[in-house]
Amino acid sequence: MKVGVYSLKGRKIAEVELPPVFKTPVRLDLIKRAVLSAISKRRQPYGRDPMAGKRTTAISLGPGHGISRAPRIKGSGYSAAQRGAFSPSTVGGRLAHPPRSNKVIGEKINVKERRLAIKSAIACTAIKELVEARGHKITGIKELPIIVDEAIEKVNSTKEAIEALQALGLEEELERCKENIHMRSGRGKTRGRRYKKPRGPLIVIAKDEGIVAAVKNIPGVDIINVKNLNCELLAPGCHPGRLTVYSKSALETLKNR
């Protein structure tokens, strides 16, 4: 299958054959597993202090004393004497089944499955129905995937980057990403997640010659080296079909891998 290669002005300047990776079958199950695995490995372990609720002299007297067998603090003649402690059913006692910091949180995935998931996610970027289903605005786009000349890697200003993306038919998509930024409801506002931002186009390059700094401040736009492609960027939220712009050199790299 051949697709057009476009200049930064949006004009078709050549045609190129898509690499075999774009013929990979769609595997939604593997893509979901790969994304969840990547997310789980970023979680921070947490757990209770192993000695919480156990710093006490309380012991249980056992049966036959006319009182419950709950552990009680030793002594007499002071307020804490004979007060229940240590047990999960007492005030200030230990937790019955506390979270442990040594729990393995990260979900594993087989290497071959992860590679197949990435290939499948790349193939999904060329399927119009999946791209539309993600909510991307593609009415001004001539064909998918979008292949652009290597000159995009040398763009070093945000203004030039926006003009190039608009010339490629992404004007509505950039507007969607900018207009739909909104404040999060709930406690997440105070936990470093104040705003919810849409995911827009993903730019895949083979070499950074200024483009990374140029697009980092454009709302919704992500950029990645083709060697570092992963399912989390290609299928945010486990939903494949992200609108993706490949540089011609990045496409050549995919063909050779």
From TrEMBL:
Signal peptide: none annotated. GO terms for cellular component: ribonucleoprotein complex; ribosome. One of its GO terms (molecular function) is rRNA binding. Residues 45-66 are annotated as: Disordered. Keywords: Ribonucleoprotein, Ribosomal protein, RNA-binding, rRNA-binding. One of its GO terms (biological process) is translation. The keyword Membrane does not apply. The keyword rRNA-binding applies. Belongs to the universal ribosomal protein uL4 family. Part of the 50S ribosomal subunit. One of the primary rRNA binding proteins, this protein initially binds near the 5'-end of the 23S rRNA. It is important during the early stages of 50S assembly. It makes multiple contacts with different domains of the 23S rRNA in the assembled 50S subunit and ribosome. Forms part of the polypeptide exit tunnel. This is Large ribosomal subunit protein uL4. It comes from Odinarchaeota yellowstonii (strain LCB_4).
